[in-house]
């Protein structure tokens, strides 16, 4: 992914479209009910997207 971000920077891209698939974060309705009770979510899915967004923000600021 870092290579893709660097390529976008080299090409002068000024935007990036990112979509979040909620089923990847909350795989099923039952899963949502159980995990919302414990205030938990699929941290791996969120962490991956967070890493992408942080990398993009760092490259924009730098």
Automatic annotation (TrEMBL):
Record keywords: Membrane, Transmembrane, Transmembrane helix
**Listed InterPro entries:** GH (IPR017853), Glyco_hydro_1 (IPR001360)
Source species, domain of life? Eukaryota
Q: Which GO terms describe its molecular function?
A: hydrolase activity, hydrolyzing O-glycosyl compounds
Q: GO biological process: any one?
A: carbohydrate metabolic process
A Pfam family annotated for this chain is Glyco_hydro_1
Protein's name in the database: Putative beta-D-glucopyranosyl abscisate beta-glucosidase
